[in-house]
Design a protein that fits this description.
This protein is α/β, with parallel strands linked by helices and about 300 residues long. It contains eight helices and seven strands. The two termini are about 35 Å apart.
Length: about 300
């Protein structure tokens, strides 16, 4: 398929480009900065998703079949006390990029007859991290799936919730095939090696608000590809947690829960054996046959 990738110079983007190219897809890159020399043979369209004219020009006359939007502001930019909180050129960026940037890309796709749109979302839509109020986040059941209610407080998490709503609307109203992958902490090979060393030397001593979840960029990339390739044979809109089957700690999951969050024992709805993840990736597996392939263990 002929596809356009945004965010190709980011942490995840290069893995996505490699995945698509290696499976025979024709890929063009839409980024502000020049991509790595590794991708010099691919078409590069310079521009920003925050500029609607750039987005329209990137797609005009190129007959793309699909868009992979990996461009985003990946942190909250308006949390009180953070660096840049009083900088009016900085603190709106999460909302501008993740909502208006996505809107610009969707509009450009719509106006150029692009039928498939796959977005890199986040598990932060749950609201379990970046807590501003200091009010504890309530986990209503485990493992957490896509139907668990959200309680987001920060600009990044909220912007990604709105992004999912935008994608669902474009699917319902315009008939586009739109998907959002709720990626968890992205861990590359170097991190996975170091994580294994760390946990061999030091046991877990506290609860992690990020719920010990992780995904390899290679596996996130394959999820993007599978959703694109199967878009016309699956539901027209979907949101999917994308994470490894296990946690990023050496202790069994139930031992961690008993030690640091025993109150969660009452909300476990299915067996959590071994190092079972606290989020569920069952929906993604069922819809497109995705499976994680990487491990830090």
């Amino acid at each position: 398929m002929k596809t356009l990738v945004t965010g190709a110079t980011g942490i995840f983007g290069p893995y996505l480009v490699r995945e698509l190219v290696s499976h025979g897809h024709e890929v063009a890159l839409f980024t502000r900065k020049k991509p790595a020399d590794e991708f010099k043979d691919l078409e590069w369209i310079q521009g920003s998703i925050n500029n609607i004219e750039d987005c329209l020009n990137a797609m005009k006359g190129r007959s793309f079949e699909a868009i992979h939007n990996a461009a985003a502001m990946a942190d909250p930019t308006d949390s009180p006390g953070m660096k840049g909180y009083n900088d009016t050129s900085f603190f709106p960026l999460a909302m501008q990029t993740n909502i208006m940037g996505l809107y610009n890309m969707l509009q450009a796709a719509l106006r150029n007859d692009v039928g498939i749109f796959v977005n890199t979302g986040t598990n932060c839509v749950l609201g379990h991290g970046y807590r501003i109020s200091k009010r504890p986040h309530e986990i209503k059941y485990l493992p957490i799936d896509e139907d668990h209610p959200s309680d987001a407080e920060d600009s990044y998490s909220f912007s990604k919730i709105v992004g999912e709503q935008l994608l669902e609307t474009y699917s319902k109203v315009y008939g586009m095939r739109c998907y959002s992958l709720r990626a968890v902490s992205i861990r590359d090979t170097e991190f996975r090696i170091n994580n294994g060393i760390k946990h061999c030397e030091k046991p877990t001593t506290e609860w992690d608000e990020w719920l010990f979840a992780w995904v390899a960029p290679e596996d996130l990339a394959s999820a993007h590809r599978l959703l694109m390739e199967q878009a016309h044979s699956i539901v027209p809109y979907g949101r999917y947690y994308c994470l490894n089957d296990d946690t990023d700690v050496s202790e069994p999951t139930m031992d961690i829960i008993r030690a640091y969050k025993p109150e969660l024992l009452d909300v476990i709805r299915e067996p959590m054996e071994g190092h079972a993840a606290l989020f569920s990736n069952k929906r993604l597996k069922a819809v497109v046959g995705w499976r994680p392939t990487q491990s830090w263990r």
